[in-house]
Amino acid sequence: MKAIINAKIITDGKILVGYNLLFVQKIITITKELPIWAEVIDAGGAYLSAGFVDIHIHGSGGADVMDATPESLEIISQTLLQTGTTSFLATTMTMSPLEIDKALLNLQHHKNSVTGAKIVGVHLEGPFINAQKHGAQNPEYIQQPNIEIIASYLEMIKMITLAPEVEGAKAFMAYLQKHYPKIVLSIGHSDATYMQSQQSFKEGITHATHLFNAMNPLHHREPGIVGAVLANNSISCDVIADLIHIHPAFFNLVYTLKQEQLLLITDAMRAGCMKCGTYTLGGQKVIVKEGEARLEDGTLAGSVLKFNEALKNFYNHSEIKLPELIAMVTKLPAQKLGLEIGELKEDYPADLVLFDEAFKVLKVFVDGELRYS
User: What's the rounded Cα separation, in Å, for the pair 118 and 365?
Assistant: First the structure.
């Protein structure tokens, strides 16, 4: 048994001081007691929380999910540890059906073999999107919603970003609602009107992908997707808090309106945790400069955001308290996906992160094992 002592433990909306966390592969308890046989890990006053859960990330460390190799999955898994991430959804891109199939087949065979952050499922971003809002997704490969091309992989898909207004989307969502109701359907890369968005919430959409980005803007006469999401308390959403995708003035506004329905993501591409330079995303050239990743035409192409930096940015530009902030990358995304991770609860996996007041990651444990220090 191991015991983390002298930590400020963030759990259940509180910060506990003077307590110890006992664990092996799973969490045993949080207590003031310290068994004499425990292996002691002194946190030195650092914060301790559940490991971070990123529900939207394409790659990092020079690797991308669409590389469709076990080596790339391992690189991503290992690289994410330094950001405090212990679980993530491997996120695909709008590419050819063959390339998507290769990536999904690779994940099916190798997602449980990675030795760093755990791959807890797949986020299918595209190809069922609106060409008018393709963003950095390649419009050449956009297609109508089609169960057949993903039918072999539905058990591991946890989230699908799609445009509910495109032809075929209604039947596609109805099928998934009936046969795979646990898959989170998310509106994104969409040009749906306010009324179309509200209707899609009745048809299965429960989330919005990178709110504000790759969708129509909020307007006082046509509130669009953003207005529909902000006005509906049952719809969750996520944002990319890199100070580029959204002006930080919106952080506090969105949090005030959405509260526990707001998550943070990175949407990081292969240049995450790497130097500036030229990379690729979905087969397209991406130039990374001064913390921004853009296609040659200037379109934002995902991000190079680190998860711990997303927390720091949101914390510094809003009035959110630390326990609520940490919930946005632990408990809340885990609950959205229906997974028993993201909380410091008895019998939950001992996926843990120690970080300082500047959100620098100090130590990361996955299933009770120290994986990063």
Answer: 11
One domain for residues 198 and 157: yes
Question: Do 169 and 199 meet the contact criterion of CB atoms below 8 Å apart?
Answer: no
Cα-to-chain-centroid distance, residue 170: 25
DSSP 344: -
CA neighbours closer than 13 Å in the CB half-sphere of residue 129: 29
pLDDT of res. 293: 97
Question: How many distinct structural domains can be found in the chain?
Answer: 2
Pairing between strand 27-31 and 20-23? antiparallel
Size (the chain), residues: 373
Q: Is residue 343 part of a domain?
A: no
Give dist(CA 186, CA 237) in Å, integer.
8
Flag residues of the chain having pLDDT under 50: none
Give the CATH number for residue 41.
2.30.40.10
Query: Which candidate in 67, 267, 347, 356 is catalytic?
Result: 267
Q: What is the pTM for the complete model shown?
A: 0.98
For 181, other C-beta atoms within 10 Å of its C-beta total 10
* 107, 20: one domain: no
DSSP-assigned letters across all residues of 282-330: TTEEEEEETTEEEETTS-B-SB---HHHHHHHHHHTS---HHHHHHTTT
Is 356 catalytic? The answer is no
Domain that holds residue 44: 2-48+348-372
So what's the pLDDT on residue 16?
98
Residue 342 maps to a domain: no
Q: Quick one: 18 and 154 in the same domain?
A: no
59 and 73 co-located in one domain: yes
Pairing of strands 352-355, 47-50: antiparallel
